[in-house]
Structures are given as structure tokens and as C-alpha cells.
Amino acid sequence: MSASFLIAFLFIPVLAAVFAFRATASPAVTIPRLLKTCLILAGLVIVVSGMSLLAGASDISAIPALKALIFRGREGLSSLDEAERTILFSIRLPRIAFACVVGASLSMAGAVFQALLRNPLAEPYILGISGGAAVGAILGILMGASLIPLGVPALAFLGALLSVAVVFGIARTGRKLASNTLLLAGVILNAFFSSVIMLLLSSTTLNSDIFSTHRILFWLMGDLGVAEGRDILFSAILFLGSFGVIYACARALNLMVLGEETAMQLGVDVERTKKVLFLAASLATAGAVASSGSIGFVGLIIPHLMRMLLGSDHRLLIPASVLFGAAFMVTADTIARTVTAPAELPVGVITALCGAPYFIYLLRKKAV
Amino acid sequence: MAVIRVEDIGFRYGHDGWVLRGVTLEVRQGDFTGIIGPNGSGKTTLLRVIDGILPPQEGAVYLDGVPVGKMKRDAVARMIAVVPQETAMVFPFAVQEVVLMGRAPHLKPWEFERERDLQIARRAMERTDTAALTNRNMNALSGGERQRVLIARALAQEPGIMLLDEPTAFLDIRHQVEFFDLIKTLNREQRLSVLAVTHDVNLAALYCDRIVLLHNGRIHSMGRPAEVITAENIREVYGIDVIVEKNAVTGLPQITPLSEEYRFALNSA
Questions:
Q1: What's A171's domain CATH number?
Q2: Hey, are the CB atoms on B104 and A265 less than 8 Å from each other?
Q3: Which of A326, B181, B220, B243 is deepest in the core (most CB within 10 A)?
Q4: Which residues in chain A are contacts of B77 at CB distance < 8 A?
Q5: Is the model's pLDDT at A182 over the cut of 50?
Q6: Is B152 an 8 Å CB contact of chain A?
Q7: pTM of the model
Q8: DSSP assigned state of B84
Q9: CA-to-CA distance for B62 and B26, rounded, in angstroms?
Q10: Are A182 and A171 spatial neighbours (Cβ–Cβ below 8 Å)?
Q11: Tell me: the pLDDT tens digits for A38-48?
Q12: For A266, which of B48, B101, B112 is closest by C-beta distance?
């Protein structure tokens, strides 16, 4: 318990250091400033992950764990026993890696959607992705897809893609994509899916086993504990691919914030860029949601927080959101699995619990 | 050769009525041309068609002889810069960041601005008297300051043509005049071709060498201010009676609209 709070406190000096670069440098983003900021934030991810590795129900102390991490293969040098090694490498490490991928994906997608839709309230699930994924996952859980490897995540991913396709279909007129219609279609689709979820839940609680109900609830609130190696790899690949595409369009995103017509006047092929970016951000979100469930607030608040500290230039904002989102998610998940140890909370509960009040504080302090 | 040649343009949104029809005009290098006309006469649509943002159903626009529809967006943005009526920013950008955005069409997507780009931006800001605002947030500026920053951004594009879309609509008289003075200086010194849409007929007469009067999507008349701005033309196009006088100092036509009581007096006289 104390370890997780220690991790949480780490964020304050790091944010101060990141802010220092904003305060001293001229507003233009340069490569040195980008590298410095990313280095600090990457350091935060590493330190937080290291501390998270040691936090948990069974106490593993730092030195032997570090030794085991470095001399992984060589038996003699590691002073950990078999059980401890399993906990470190097969349970905690993959989970931390997954938290990084999910936090990074959601924060990146949030930043992209906020810029494309020019709406501070946009978040990764705005196009109905979470609703579609949830319906897919719940159907999967109820039909027993949990027994098949990749079963539930695959169905959730399909559900997410399906809802994105529907939203795109509604908002497309000719070869153009109307942003406002996209937004409305997403909101309506999410509302529709919520009622489908309610329908599924109310018709199954009576005749279904407690295990399925429990899994569905955890899925709806977001949980990083069920993902396996393959799921994590899948999300990671989707994240890396989307990040590459999105970062290549980072300057175009800056121009899109000024409005689509202005972006065209400044040389952006708006329709193409918009499609590519919506698709990349949707894929990253779908990849994360598929095996983690709908973890809320991360994709909304992290981009805002980074924007306040670093400005709106997406060449800095995107990588900063990725790294800080990863660190934040690892912290939230560490708290989720240690606060009530040996029981666990869904991580979505933690992100919403600290996200909502903090967001309100930011709103009061400085208009987002 | 004409830097802009608009050839028999017809444009409509979807299957609605024609917004522009049979519009043909030329802009030569260094021209300062004003486009005036009532609301809905197609002024802004014409600018969008020229900039290649709206593809016309009939006719074509040529920039330096190349059809704009065949050009890539960044190639168009290197030739034409647009100063809009106003700019809305959902997320905060500093003035320097906004001006540097003008360099976007000159850079590869992954390229960062080099020293040369920073210099061009700096010169554009000095030229528009916005250098002192470098670190300020765009949203915290006054309307006049914001428009000057947008000129700086347009200059950073290093364009040959500048399109102005009612750029002084939200400015007071002093800032209107300062805005157009600056554009006029750039027009003279850098041989920048300017095409300005404005509602202010008097300002257009004051600054433009040539005026295009649009009426229901067609060119009603075109020529020097004194040829276009006549009481008769204004009555035909805007449907109101105005007094057109030759200003004693400038020698340019200036219009005075009449309120109802004076119109009544004029008609009964």
C-alpha cells in the first residue's frame, strides 16, 4: 500500500521538471526540447514500472529482483526462488508492460481525437469504440469464448471495428467525412450499445454463473489482469503502428486544430489526413480496449494535462501523452492491485476516482 | 502572364442553385483587386474556388498557367496565402507557433523548422509589428493583434498571392486602416498580388487598383474604382440608393448610404 502512494508522489517533481522546459524555452518545439522532455518522461515510466514490479501481495525486495532482472537466464546469480521469479516475470512484468501499452494507446488516441474533432471533451471512445467492444466482449464471455485463446479480445476488437465502420458510414458524404456528424453518430452509437449491454446483463444474471457476471463487470470497468502474452503483443503492435502513422501527421494535426479550411490553406490534404488519423487512433484504441475493457478518463485527462504543461504542438504533445499515459496507467494499476490486496479493484475505478476530481480541479484553476 | 486566371467558373453546392456562374477574371502580378457585392453574391465562394478548396463544376482556375485542381495542397499553399476573417483556436497556441505554421507547406511532414524558417518567421513578425508578442497566447490577443499575426503567418508562407476574406470585419476604423496600409505596403514593395473580399465599399475604393462587383454569382462590373462604384451600379446590385461623391482629398469615389428620412426627402425633391 505505501509503495503505491510513493509511486503516486513521484509524479509531482517530474511534472515540475517538464514544466520548467516550457517556462524557459521559446514556444517553438525544437528537437532538443523534444528529446529532453521525452527523456524525463521515459525516466518516469521506468522508475514507476520498477517500483510497481516490487509492489504487491508478496514482498520481493529490490536488490534480488534487480539482480534477477539483469542476470535473468543465469540460475546461480539469482537469489529468488521459483515462485518469486514466476510472480516477477510471468505475472507482474507482463501486466506492467500491458498497462504501458494501454495507457499510451488511450492517451495518444485521446489527443488525436481532441485535435481532429476540435473538441476538448473528445476521448478515445467517442466514436462508439468502447460500446462496440463491450458488446463483443460480453457476448464472448456469455458464449464461453473465454475458453478459446484470444476469444474474448478478438470479439471485442471486432465489435470496436464494427462500430467505427458504422460511425464512418453515417458521417461520410461522398468522399468527405463530416466531423460533427462523426461526433454525434459516435455518441448515439455508444448510447445504443449501453442499452444493448443492459439488455444482455439483465437477461443473463439469473441463469448465468457468477464467474461470467464478475468478468463482465470487471470488463466494463476496465481491468488489466486478464490479458495474456498474445493479447499484450497484439495491442503493442497496433499501438506502435498507429504511433508511427500519427507521429508522421503530427504537424498536420496542429494545423487541423485551427480548422479544416485553414489546414487546407496551409497545405494539408485534409480529407486524406483525417481518414488516416481517425483510422490509426481507432485501431490503437480498439487494440487496447479489446483485452483491457473500457478504462475511462485516461484518454481524456492525460492529453489535457500535457497540453497545459507543454503547449498544443502535437509533435511534443503526442509523445509526451504516450509516455505520461503509460506511467499514469502503471501507477493506477499498481494501486488497483495493492490497495485491497489480496483482492483487486478494476483499474478503471482508480482512473475515474483520481481522474474526475483532478479534472475538475484543472477546470477551476485554468480553463481547458 | 496572369498569376491567377479564372476561366468561366460555375460552382454550386450539391444540386442547389448556382453560387457562381460564368465568372472570368485575371489577376496580374502586383495587382490589388477588391471583390465587393451583397451578402450571398458569391464573394467568399470565389476565393475558395481560386484557392482550390472548392472544385468548380464548370470552368477552371489557373495559377501561373497550371490548373489549381491538378496541384497538390502544399504546392497551392506555397503560392497562395489566405488571411481569414478571424481565427478560432480550441487549444492554445503561442504567436510564434502560429506564425511558424506558415512554413508548413515548405517542410516535409516529419521535418522540424530549421534556422532559416525561424528567420523567415521572425522577419514576418517584425514586418507586421508582432515580434513583441512572440510568446503570447493567441487567444489572449486583441482582434487587431490577431489579424496582424495572421498576416505574419501568411507572409511566412512566402506566397506570391494573398487572398483576404473580409479580414477587417471585426476591427475598428483605425485597425482597418492600419491593416490595409500594411497590405498595401507589401503589395508595393514585394509585388504581392492581393485579392481582397470586403463589405466595405469605401475601403475597397481607397486601397484597390481594380474592383470586381459581384451580383448573384456573376460579375456585374469590373474596373477602376471610379468606373465600378457609381450610384447606378450600387442601386442595381445592392438595391439601395446611395450618394457617391468624389472625395476632395483622395479623388476616389466614396459612398454614403441614406437613412429612410433622407431617402424620402431625396425622392420627393
A1: 1.10.3470.10
A2: no
A3: A326
A4: 265-267
A5: yes
A6: no
A7: 0.89
A8: -
A9: 10
A10: yes
A11: 999 999 999 88
A12: B101
Cell numbers 467492444 correspond to A133
Q: A203 at the B interface (CB within 8 A)? A: no
How far apart are the C-alpha atoms of B259 and B269, rounded to whole Å? 15
- Structural domain count of chain A: 1
Q: Do A269 and B89 touch (CB under 8 A)?
A: no
3-state helix, strand and coil shares in percent for chain A, rounded to the nearest 5: 80, 0, 20
Overall average pLDDT of the A348-368 stretch: 76
Q: What is the ipTM of this complex?
A: 0.90
Quote the CATH superfamily of domain B2-268.
P-loop containing nucleotide triphosphate hydrolases (3.40.50.300)
Contact predicate B139/B87, CB 8 Å: no
Q: B74 at the A interface (CB within 8 A)?
A: yes
| Chain A residues within an 8 Å CB radius of B118 | 28
Kindly report the CA angle at A118 between B113 and A297, in degrees rounded to 5?
105
Kindly state whether A23 is in contact with chain B, defined as any CB-CB distance less than 8 angstroms. no
Range of the domain at A27: 2-365
pLDDT exceeds cutoff 60 at B92: yes
Nearest-CA distance from B175 to chain A in Å? Answer: 23
Convert the pLDDT of each residue in B30-73 to its tens digit: 999 999 999 989 999 999 999 999 999 999 999 999 999 999 99
Q: Where are the domains of chain B?
A: 2-268
Beta bridge partners of B222: B212
Distance, C-alpha B142 to centroid of its chain: 21
Residue whose entry in the numeric block shows the C-alpha cell 504543461: A309
Contact between chains at A28 and B118 (C-beta distance less than 8 A): yes
